[in-house]
Amino acid sequence: MKALWSGDGPMSVRDVLDQLNAGRSDSLAYTTVMTVLARLADKQILARVRDGRGYVYEAAVSDTAQIAVRGVMRDFGDAAMAHFVDEARADPELLARLQRLLADKE
To answer: Which domains does the chain possess?
Structure first.
């Protein structure tokens, strides 16, 4: 993800591979990187666009926190949201922060 977050735009598998292998003594295989990128695209962590015979990838999330939240929401849905709200209600500081964030988004 760091390679894609630091890039200037969509990257091919080769671009990501070259960046990951820079400075490594044991190089990663092209197919390994291709498989990981495809799986991250399937999970909507990366955006994938056809480019010739292959694909280019770019981050669809801004940081690791967003990856974690998407995973929790995907796996637990409404139950996760209900627990989050319960936690916020139990902590006045957290509840105030959540209310400010919601107000800023409106």
So the answer is: 2-59 (1.10.10.10), 64-105 (no CATH)
